[in-house]
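Would you mind giving me a polypeptide sequence along with per-residue structure tokens?
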Amino acid sequence: MGSGKTTKMLDIINKDNENKYMFITPYLKEVDRIKRSTVKNFYEPKNEVRTKYADIMSHLHRNNNIVSIHKLFMDFNGTIENLIVSGDYILVLDEVTTPIKLHSISKHDMREILNNNLKSVDDDGFIVWNPKKIEYEGVFSWMKYLALKNCLMVYGKDLSLDENCKLIVWSYPKEIFKAFKKVYILTYMFDGCLLKPYFQLHNISYEHCTLDDQRNIVPYSKEIDFSRRKGLRELINICDKYKLNHIGEEETALCKNWFIKNPSELPILKRNVSNYFKNIVKAKQGDVLWTTFKDYKDNIKGKGYSSGYLECNARASNDYINTNKLAYCLNRYENPLIVNYFAKHGIKLNESSLAISELLQWAWRSQIREYKPIHLYLPSRRMRAYLSEWLNCSDDV
């Protein structure tokens, strides 16, 4: 984080007189920054005359350089794939996307779908829509659309497509990544994101790289990574007040399920956060950055710090760079169904890396990105342990 990945990529683009690029970034503000920072003409898809999707198709037809956001990129399908191939594009994906999602299906609905619309499952586990039902329009149109895009899979390779199949998995079309001449993914802690097991699942090879001190792209090494963590321990002042941290003592405390099952604990957590900001670190409103699960934001927000909320999965934003009093009020686990889905395919997720990478990306929105000190309330004992291991350059995270 903050090692100059985007700056390096822009330098590569500006020096490349041969290739066309598609630059995908999380936020519209970053789209404007990319356009200002390149000597090439980058076109942003608009919906002024037509949809953004139609507009990006038009730019691909004209072989223009394109910059857009993750949301549009996640809608790509086979039609756009052919234009990417013919345009010989290079993809730059700034920060990772979420490549799979789960859809629950009732037994009744699955029986209805099987009787009328679905045909089979192919050798790779993708659901095939019945070509005789291609004109179907109804409550399961969403499934037809996704199946025809070749991005619906059965939950687990050992499960057959029958009425007992309770989950369907949306998987981003692997053909899109393969359509590009080359792909750069700009992120930190690749082991802690779902793109890694997604690539493993679909046999997409990749090379894990980093930047050295001269900002050359080199194979990833722990030595380079560890050297950049040095000094951060002295800059992150983690709250060690027992009364404030006791609420997160249990291993699964403050996970999503804990919030669901322990509504009576939420006022206590709110008081702790308020006490921390008001009395422990004496924060001013502009100093504050805090988060919890989005569904429980209103349960935890309080006087003097509500406006400092930032979603826990935030990345690639510099809007909070002046904040230095932080509260991270959650305990991050991956959805166990997603963990199990990959496990059924023989792929083990690195859940510790996933948890710590999201915490680090969030905290890095503050002034720590400029190597200035911060104060952090981290009530989950599990998350504090992961952060301590990371700061001490443990091989476990």
